[in-house]
Batch of 3 targets.
Target 1
Amino acid sequence: MTSQPVPAARAAVITGSDSGIGRATAVRLAEAGMDIGITWHTDEEGARATAEEVRAKGRRAEVAQVDLTRLPEAADTVDGLCERLGRIDVLVNNAGTGTATPYLDLGLDDLRHVLDVDLAGPFLCGQRAARRMIRQGDGGRIVNVTSVHEHQPRVGAAPYCAAKGGLGLLTQVMALELAEHGITVNAVAPGEIATPMTGQEDTDPHTERRPGVPLGRPGDAREVAAVIAFLAGPDASYVTGASWAVDGGMLRMGPQAGSHLTGDDWRRP
């Protein structure tokens, strides 16, 4: 009697999963029963620590370096991880970078660097993943991690805002075009989250005070990962083309917004 091949486990590739939101997402999706493809740019040790956490959940982890400024070849990493994992069901475009430079002081190289990592990279990685999902024939999930600055500007962050705003609209176009293949595409837009990118790698966000955020504190990377996991799972099968803010209510502040506020005066009319 001929034995049937064992199908590959569901698999997710998460860019920039060496720390912060990416690591939290890798662990959360491993808990949901997925094998995980992990990418890193400069922090190999962090990526291997993520892989150990994934394996501790009983799931497989594959690790690869990727530099999203080296396009289009950097997107080959997605294909390589898919080959090693056997398939791809979820892509999370999480890797990102930004600036804190006034608009008039920015150079073209600054702009191109941020646009490549935050917009062109997700564009190309999304193509690679979607083509494989279509060949597999059973749909898939793509989640693009944007920012509250997909929706609102920030002084000193012109390239970042341009890239994240573009990624938000790209998400909507991808959702429309990939829907017929059973692939959903959504964005998650974090506010201030306690991660290395915000200089809070070892910070408990529940101990930090942020009067300018309605919930009064920064977010935890695991709180973002929970929303990503929902969008990557079966319960979100009818959700596509949406942007989910995970910001403690900051976007609802409108012209009052600002995680830099030092007092609660805005809470009173």
Target 2
Amino acid sequence: MPRSAAARAFLKLNSQFSALNGLALLLAAGTLTPVLFAHPVDWAALGLRGLGVGLLAFAGVVYLLSRNKFLSRAAVNEIVVLDALWVIGSVLLIAFFGSVFTTYGMVILTVVAMVVAFFAVSQFASAAKIKPPVPIADVSMRDGKLHATVQRRVNAPANTVWDVMTDHPAYADVADNISKVEVLAGDGLGMTRRCYGPKGEHWEETCDLFEPGHTYGFRIHTEADDYPYPFSELSGRWTVEAQPTGSEFDIKIVAALKGNVLSKWLFATMAKPKFKAVLIDLADAWAKRMEREAKS
């Protein structure tokens, strides 16, 4: 289980609590206004609805973070800061503007602040247990394309790493997004292979770069009518370098997305954590096999 599991669990609870409060404020602002405020003004209900919208947006962001298996400590602590600001704001409201609220309003404000404080402390404590993954991965948008990279040190000689990396049928054993790989024709430059996704979808790839013992690359045939993913271009490069102790391999993926500017931005935003998780899992699974092969 990833060391981020506890932090992600508290973030998910935080998002659910925020969403419930946001919905209550948005849908029942008129009812809640006299419950919360001793002398409600005309715009109080509108203000509560605005706060509800903000809480729903916050809940969405926190939920997306909770879905990231390789969540960083810094990302969790950003939410901790926001939660702490909510608690501090609640304390200041009670201390300096308590007369604005009814007794029920004061109780509700206090209870919500206590729950948020619990989330802040729990998230901070669980974030301290998060350790960054061994593979170094990055996913970013540059020049209108999605660039995904991962590097991993491995305690195995370069020739062993190369043999594992070029065992194409076994690629499906280590890649979570691949269920099967078939070599269709050739060996080295010009080789073609067919990859299958977890739901049976498939596509073909052609080796367009091959330097024995060092690097190879594939171009995915995104132009095919039955290509299942929203990419207009997709290519990958796999490289191994010998190190003073062991080796280092890296993977570089470059993808151009289909659609308009908005759809590209939305997909890239959603795809970044997924790409990163897939690459980290792949690098770790490959490293285990490489080191096992080196010992045998």
Target 3
Amino acid sequence: MKFKGTPKYQTKMIFEMSGMLQFGQSKHAAKKAARTGGARNPTQYAQATGIYSFSTYRAYFKTCTELLQYAADIHGIKRADRLTDEIVNAFLLTKSDVKLASFRRYCAALTKLDAALSRLIDRPPQWNGVLQDFRASAPVALDCEQPARAYREPHALVAQLDTGSDARLVAELQWRAGLRVSEACTIKSGQMKGTTTDNTGKMFGLLEIKGKGGKVRTVPVTIAVYERMLKRLECEPMLITPTLYRSQLRQAAHRSDQQYTEHGTHGLRWNYAQEQMNDLVGKNIVYEVALTMVSKLMGHDRAGITSHYLRKG
């Protein structure tokens, strides 16, 4: 097959010429045969089976055409056989605002397209790693039935906490550095790594954070918060527990006329993610690059998880 023509034409020819279209045949029998043949995961099933209903084909066709159009418009790649897992990853990141069921259909469609391409050009599926990662993170990152958790007025919330208190520092570390509660409540002097400046000359403090799974990352924080942390840690380690902090933040939310139960402590991490993304995109950094940068700062394994934090209420 010659991979040329419009995204719609290429998608049509890929599915037709690969033998994927098996309308009227039994999907159940095909899956049973695939299982007998050793298929155990979505990629293996996609390789061994076809598409058995026109409605499924129509949904897959739409998604695959969107991918090819995206690759052409954004990455300059106009041939389906030249798609890479990086392009597939970037395309799926643009779908971070859909419902979980819809996102799973996107992954299923692209798995089938990858399988069809592998049949046509005699290569193993190339996108299974990316698609498996997105499938694994989707239940957390795309649980759109849950409300967005960013606080409406983080300034007002933090202002209700006593100036100079540990609770105020922890809240500002969550809001200004994107730390988890467990990370912010246990800061020690050895984690203070000095100051630096960005390309505009603005000064920041640097914190070394050991997060989930023991992964270490360096996070910038405003110089005002950094200097207050230095002064606080001259005396003794942080004394506040996550339980006490949550109690004080709940009271602060009530005093600032905001719902703690909808946002919790994690809401301030949502505010951090959204503010960082707005800042980076405002500096003309490409969305996908900005998302990756914020993901690393927050200690996420996958940018798809971070995209969840960008949903508005």
